Amino acid sequence: MKHYDAIIIGAGQAGVPLAKKMAEAGKKTAIIEKRLVGGTCINDGCTPTKAMIASAKAAYQARKASELGIIISDVNVDLKKVKKRADSIVKMFKGSAEDGIEETKGLKLYMGEASFASEKEIVVKGKDGTTETLTADLIFINIGAKTIIPEIDGIEEIDYLTSTSILDLEEIPEHLVIVGGNYIGLEFGQMFSRFGSQVTILEQSPVILSKEDDDISKAVTEFLAAEKIDINTDVKINHIGWKGDRIETTITSGKKDKKITATHLLIAVGRAPQTQHLHLENCGVETDEHGHILVNDKLETNVKGIYALGDVKGGPAFTHIAYNDYTIVYRNLIENTNLSTADRPVPYCMFTDPQLARIGLSEREAKAQKLDYQVAVLPMKNVARGIETNETSGLMKAIVDAKTDKILGATILASEGGEIMSVLQMAMQGGITSEQIRYGIFAHPTYTESLNNLFMKIHQ
Question: Can you give the residue ranges of the FAD/NAD(P)-binding domain (predicted)?
């Protein structure tokens, strides 16, 4: 049995920097990883998908270049080369994370699956079957989430894809069916459509992106449909099975029954915490009905000295939130600050083209809270920079407090929407009013400059 001052379970985007910082602060530290250092984000999440999305966008822009007077006679996609480029970026980022662990004095990496034997005692089972027992005063859980596989008749009989396994494809699917019309499914759907696949999306809700405002969902539906992506909503999947060497999906959409035959099927209905193998019953850490670890606003569980960070604790499942979790925990424990997760901003971005970026309240949420608010909307077809660059899909939308003129939230559906949203996030954090932005000076011609015109809707 080996004793450490701190043990981190999971080498993801919170786990690695936390482990390094704890060791650098003089604490004997161990980090345990069962699969790949870097976690989902680096290995089969943000890094490879955004690299591949860039390739898909290049193909799309080449095909529509004639609109800008550039004639490209033929556009071909070499998925093996696309994958090779993405894999090389993953290897670089993963190698950097591994080197950082190896070069940190006082930090030991264990490769294996961790489970609790008692409150502060962890057993690590290696891939070769050997086990080691570790103890620590401080334990941090950063094990992330995995793809939810819904209970659909016949699904276990077919070779379905997940957001992880689809990245291994080296040939473009002829026809890809995607179960799930939210952020992951839509990114993959547009990407493979631009690579050359026929894409069909199946969503059980009445609309895709059901958590967004109706006008945002409608705008996303329109630009995806314009790229000939077949979007089916209000869908019940009755059966999935083989029809020869193809996958046949039998659905009811609204009141209509139909069968869809495709070469590939991707499951993208959501993700669940990977807590089932931790044996949390042995340490007394409480979870909710979905398996998420319950924490307070300092990210500590009901057991003193045991913390949970990132997707495993529920709430916003974003890499940047996991990283912020690390900064809160580290600074509180080592620098004696009093930080919490209460009222922190939660920005996010879906990397379709155009991007969908959100910060703060949506109009639906403001209405539900019965706030006194104003709405500013600016279609991208009225944005000078968008017109000049031939990027006119989408819109900008902001929710403003009618009394204080402070920005309550914004949704930006635009080329580089994430960057534009970040400007408004900083305005919100700094208490800058919409009137100040309306009359602010921004470089011309930029997308940010169009915020003048967005808030002109409120301040004539």
Answer: 4-324
